[in-house]
Fold these 2 entries.
Entry 1:
Amino acid sequence: MTVGELYFESLSTGIITPTELSWLAHGQDRFSRLEEATALRLGRLLDQGDIQLGCRLGSAGTLRPKTSTPGVLEEWIEPLGRQRHR
């Protein structure tokens, strides 16, 4: 998981799970500047009530469905950290 993936998953569902929030809080020391800004934005959205703390269920009861929108990976998620960790 990357901060970018978490950000877009939370925006699309309106939910962030306690596990994801914990991962975000404990990984702060490893984040790039862009990832830090994204994490802060997630916190603000949570404070404003735009994102709720809860459980996310996908189709057929699976947790955390994968993003299937073409171009999202290359244009949004990759700049937010996945390639940085390779």
Note: Residues 14 and 50 are 7 Å apart (CA to CA).
Entry 2:
Amino acid sequence: MTGNNGVGKSSLAEAVSGRHRVTSGQRSWPGLTGERFQAIRTVSFTDSGRLFHNANAVHYYQQRFNAFDADGHLTVRDYLLANGHDEASAVAALSHLNATDLLDLERIKLSSGQTRKLLLAKALAGQPEILIIDNPYLGLDARSRSRLNTLLDDLVSNNGVSLILVGMTDAPPTCITHRLHLKEGTIAFQGNFSDYPIDTVPKRATDEPITDIVRYFQETAKAPDYDQVLKLVNVSVAYGKKVVLDQLNWLVKPGEQWVVSGNNGSGKSTLLSLIYADHPQAYANRIHLFGRRRGRGESIWDIKRRIGFTSPELHAFFDGSLTAREVLLSGLNDTFRPPKTITSAQEDLLHALLRFSGLALHTSKPFRQFSTGEQRLLLLLRALIKAPPVLLLDEPFQGLDAKTIERCRRLLDAVLTPERTLIFISHFRAEVPEGVGLELGL
């Protein structure tokens, strides 16, 4: 099931599974042999937020980076067992995903890709007759995507599972036979997968409303008062015996554009948490930010005010009651709440960003009511709203359609003046902005 962001893919998938109320028409599941809510299993990105809602545990955004601060949070093993699966089924499901090493980790400590594997394992352990996966490859590295395709092909051919994938990839599993394409809430195409015309994404559209955004970035550009954005010297991070980063050395200078690559669990998000002042082990390491050694008197807010940031973990914890306007404005003060007052120039930039997003007519709509892709786009624009000297973007294009990704790549290339620095994480090479010329592989 394909279509651009906000056309209703996830809503239709929920209706198919019986988890979304329909106001007219009929739906039935004549082929199911078991009870519907057991026979149909749905995996969606938004489930990642629910992993943390435990009545017996207090949680907060930085908690996954605190080694001894997980009291009350279930391990992956406990989580799967608590959802009604026996241990053999749980282990088998994780084994299919090459993820049995996650069993005894607290689920709050998982990376976004590891979290996706847990949600998939939860669905697979229930032995569904129909499996619906919303954005199946979100947060998965190339090896994990290939393993997932092999697993899905096996489930369809050997277990008779009916499969619906929501959102498209350049490399779907071979078992996919049909395609349903939505446009503006209606069906634009349904039929054999091979009969669908190849999508074309305009590479250089000229009518994008980015002029005002670029102008603001140019007008607020300042020569940096430091000669190094980041310097890591033999940095190591470990949780007990588990080493996440080992003797890492890295130098980032002002104006450089980097991509950070690596498999799920390789430490990419941990690395960014050190830079963004969220990780307590920063004080046990030689980390220099903006020309100063961490722990020499600067507050975390001194660091955060110079950085525009977004990540899958931030998304999972974000307050769904905020409006689209409030989400973007919250980026001005590095908290989950917007400032009480803003300047006229900031107001103009806000409107320009909302026009770019295509959501300018929905500024009062709660964050939770947007599609996953629209939410991720709002959080990316939130990172831009203070026109920071450094952009720290952890998989910012997750859940975006191809057209929106291309527009966002062009926007990043346009706003990155020579004074500004980019550190970019993605599992997809096609997502990396054109200006990126340096790479750190973990």
Note: Residues 316 and 372 are 11 Å apart (CA to CA).
